[in-house]
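Hi support team,

I'm filing this because I wasn't sure whether my run with alpha-D-galactopyranose finished correctly. The job status page said complete, but I'd like someone to confirm that the output block is well-formed before I use it downstream. Pasting the exact inputs I used:
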Amino acid sequence: MTLTPRFPALLHGGDYNPDQWLDRPDILEKDVELMHKAHVNCVSLAIFAWARLEPEEGVYDFSWLDEVIDRLWKAGIHVILATPSGARPAWLAQKYPEVLRVNDRLQRNRFGGRHNHCPSSPVYLRKVREIDTALARRYAGHPAVIAWHISNEFSGSCYCPLCQERFRTFLKKRYGTLEEMNRRQWTSFWSMAYQSWEQVEPPMPSGQMSNLTLRIDWQRFSTQQCKDFILMEREAVKAVCPELPVTANLMERFWDYDYFSLAEALDFVSWDSYPRWHSGDDVKTASDTAMWHDVMRSLKNQPFLLMESTPSLVNWVPVNKPKKPGMHLLSSLQAVAHGSDSVLYFQWRKGRGGAEQYHGAVVDHNGRDDTRTFRQVTDVGLALEKLESLCGASQKTEVCILYDWENRWALDFLQAARREHMHYTETVAGHYRALWQQGIGVDFRDMREETDLSGYRLVIAPLLYMQRGGIDRKLRDFVAGGGTLVATYFSGLADEDNLAFLSDTPHGLTEVLGVRTEEIDALYDSEENRLVTRDGQSFSLTELCEIISPVSGDVEVLATYGSDWYQGLPCLTRHLYGEGQAFCLAAQAEQAGLDWLYGRLAADLGLHAAWCAPLPAGVVATERGGCAFLQNYTDKPQPVSLPGRFESLLTGETLTGTLTLQPYGIAVLRAAETAI
Ligand code: GLA
Ligand code: ZN
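And here is everything the job wrote out:
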């Protein structure tokens, strides 16, 4: 599958801001020469250039962009062209203050920064549509232009009267009548009931924060607002050139919008990855980053673009550390291993001023091409050329983890257990890590109607607190049909309106799991319990321990609690159901416990892994397109014994015996005879 049909290749390059250098034609000339040297084949262009493109209302100046694009194209460099709606010119904010966002204290923002627009403002929508149309008319047919980069890192919500009105419309559509909304939002609590639609306001600190369903609805609405905005921009550029694909750059761990829903407005997903390497445990950082690559790939179930990453360091964390030798190639190819068809950077050249003047760039202020960063970037360019055959390739996945934004919001708003600290994403990341380090491919799915679990062999549903989309039925069918399910504590308590089920819990799953939940014990940070396995192992349990009781005589207790008043009661169970089996892990287990569980499961199920032989600690294999990416996330050389003959895609050698991976080293291997 090719994301950018006009240039079906692995892309290398990044954010290019010539609009900051228009008074330095020498530098703009030099840029192209240096790009060539760094094996750059693509730039993302004009992301924040609105003030240069439309210096006065209705007066467009494309002359400089014409020159830049032509110069790039002559050098064979392609362009992902941005729409400039991420930051607006001062004249626009001055003349039409209603384009600016209103915060949750109901104050209208001033001109400044970026990502500061109201997504409902008719003036803003019109102005964006106009400039997008003008850009499309001028450049969509240019052979250099391969995709649209819509705006930049969409985030947040606006609380202006217009957005509030649209929120009410959204609620009317969702609930039909006010009575129905009052019922499903349980507004009889604390006299929260609405007597007319006009009374409904978004949740805000000085207002209604106790209606948890309303808060979830506000996030659903904010997702819809952002999606509508993207669709408006999409229509503007597609009206001129329907075949040019549209993307928007998404972000890691991003909370504000449901990305599964947002991705429906895009032709392909791209995202900005800024892991904090060398800030502690690099293996954990690698696992968390791998998870987000896999989430992004899963949003549309196809390859994605790494739209931004730093060539060296960022400037916005308290301690800004450059990547150690090796890490740039390693982290870049990690993205490719998980489905990226690009390695793109923020930024090509460091600007002289502004808030990002010291953010890492391929070209530093000194303009040199003999820096460590420039060399490392060039190495990535060369590596991508050698991996060209992997462009568009997929990976084999037999495992699916359910990760759902609406459930995430519900858990974050939760007033129970470890109130507002349920650590949903971290818990999902722990389960993911146990599979990632075994080289097992993982997809992520949410609970939408469309979700189809039938192709998987193992489905993991951590903290499935709020259910929707018939997920209980899907999980029952999945297990009945021969699948393996792992469910955890605090699952199946509420429906999609966040109303508690009146049945036994986990709702709709007690028959499959063979257990029902009774109580949940929340632990202080200083407390722990133990998971004691039948084969005599013991793992630490923290944060949450649920008391479960079998509802069926044939439940197998694989582990029990080690202490406290529920000592000896089941903590990990297995139950056969139909052709399949379902596990219930009733407490928050340390990583070693999850590793133990998924080590056993992977072996029992014979799950496909990227590498069939043992690997040293900190070395991980990931499969894409039939190749194994061997990644060393330690600062030591690591010997890997090769179970057969392998071709190294990066060096062209044929390898047997032992391969030594350098500190933060990577090799991409394809079996020459023995299947991997
Ligand atoms: C984000 C933005 C970029 C830049 C980088 C800096 O990803 O999209 O414009 O600010 O962060 O890391
Ligand atoms: Zn608004």
